[in-house]
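Handout, tutorial session.
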Amino acid sequence: MVRSVAILVLLASPLGLAQTGNPNSDRLKTEAARSIASLSAKLKEVNQPTALDAELAAQCSVNCADSSLQMHMESLNSQRFRASKGLVAQIHQAVDAYIIGTSNGLLLESTPTAWYGT
């Protein structure tokens, strides 16, 4: 009899622990999903072709050797790359914060600088 009670307690304890998980997990998941979706939309927007891209492509089809045109295109691509890189870093921070927040049960501050101490 004692043996069956001990087995029952051992088998039931993981179920009890599962029920007492982090109550903030759902909120963290919702916030992370919202943040990541917003950042992904911004990333897509940053990389959408613009009227300026079409204009530069048209100029390039006439004379792509023009140094000022090349500098302008390079500058535009560089700005786009920097913006994309920053947004991707923010997406990674949001994912990291979610993982850390749900793995140890702590609710982290919602500012990226608080997550990495920068």
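The second record follows below. Compare its token runs with those of the first.
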Amino acid sequence: MKGPGRRVVARPPYNLYGRTPQIIDDDSEIEALQALSREEKEEKMFAFLDDPEKQVKVFLSGYMREQGFIWSVSFLFTLFLILWD
């Protein structure tokens, strides 16, 4: 339970784990970072469109781990049938 005055530490977005934060000096650097972000999103979209089956499997496997489904044999069996049938 959180008491008064306790701060919740914000986590970085998942796509930024393992990256060092960049120090921004002016607006042009912000625009460059936004352009880079757009390019990365486009690459992910094209990867999905190239092989949607693989990308859905990757997403659902991460979802299974996040929800704790990997620790239940019945969930694993059912999701195995859904994903790889």
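Points raised in discussion: The chain has three helices and no strands.
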